[in-house]
Amino acid sequence: GACVGGGVVYYALHLEQCSFTGRLRFMPSSRQWEGKLSEELYKTQLSAWENDGVSLVRDSDSRKMRVVKICSDLVHAVPLVERALGKCLDLSKDQLCFQVTLIEDASTHNANVLPNGHIFVYTGMLDLCGDGPKGDARLAAVLGHEIAHALLRHPGERLGGCHLLLATHSIFSFVASALIPEELFDLLHAPAIMQLESLQLRLLDAVVSLPNSRKQEFEADYLGIMLSSAARYDPKEAPLLWMELADRECEHNASTPEIFSTHPGWDDRSEKLREWQ
Q: What family classification does the UniProt entry report for this protein (predicted)?
């Protein structure tokens, strides 16, 4: 009882309101810790790429220069969006590094961001976006989305979600061990117990973490398209790119039921993007 009570107090003390959306969220980590974690994650990822023989695109490469230029345009648009919406973001653009690492991997159509604003982009995403003004607008939508995640401290929030998930799992496991007779545990084989624990984690994830994750994606979509528009990139390309990504997902049979997905459905996201234009 004392542990549960202490956990509730800890949770309540680390609730904060997102200044941009007004949404309450659990944020147990400090910005300084998130920055240090980002540095360690970057080093770990670099080592993994080196071991796997993955190449990074040089700074002098025109593709890298293109990504950096679009990223810079979007970052400089942050104050314009804040003034237009009358809202302040959780982090200012000066509190994040917004460095870009371009990975030579034509088969991967993805981009992601660390808590400190370091953005990873795969060359496959550049190929998918295409060239010219249309391609730049599509790439701006992708980069704007990732920049928005960093500005809204979504990576830090996801760390908090992991803490909450593990704590909830521990409580459920403790209660189960107290209520279920030992004789029943003895009848279950180790693989069966592991499967039950895996199912429990998956269900808890669907209830505790994933709904917030999908909210974060909508928030990043919204702020991202605002940044793209303010930086004078055509926002109409964003929903078109999202639908193309949806088609590719269907082709590879990679679709996941939304309740078990970290992202909202592509159709929902595309529809929202059209509404926000």
A: Belongs to the peptidase M48 family.
Q: What does residue 24 show for φ and ψ, rounded to 5 degrees?
A: -75, 140
| CA–CA distance, 98 with 112 (Å, rounded to integer) | 12
* Tokens of residue 3, six digits: 């542990």
Q: Indicate the burial class of 169 (C-beta count within 10 angstroms; 0-12, 13-18, 19 or more).
A: middle
Q: Residue 61, class by beta-carbon neighbours within 10 Å (0-12 exposed, 13-18 middle, 19+ buried)?
A: middle
Residue located via tokens 């670099």: 46
Q: What is the residue type of 260? A: F
30: left (phi over 0), alpha (psi -120 to 50) or beta: beta
CA–CA separation, 43 and 48 (whole Å)? 9
The ranges assigned to domains in the chain are 1-277
CA 71, 103, 137, 90 torsion-angle sign: negative
DSSP lists the bridge partners of residue 111 as 121
Instruction: Find the angle CA(107)-CA(101)-CA(21) to the nearest 5 degrees.
Output: 95
- The DSSP secondary-structure symbol of 16 reads E
Cβ neighbors of 192 (< 8 A, separation 6 or more) are none
| Helices and strands counted in the chain (H then E) | 12, 5
**Contacts of residue 73, Cβ cutoff 8 Å, sequence gap at least 6:** 140, 231, 232, 233
Q: How far is CA 249 from CA 109, 127, 178, 267, in A?
A: 11, 16, 43, 12
**∠ CA 255-256-257, rounded to 5°:** 125
The residue type of 90 is: D
- For residue 94, CA distances in Å to 38, 54, 110, 117, 139 come to 16, 31, 25, 10, 22
Model pTM above 0.90:
no
Condensed to tens digits (0 to 9), the pLDDT of residues 146-200 reads 999 999 988 888 876 665 555 555 555 655 566 556 655 555 555 655 555 555 4
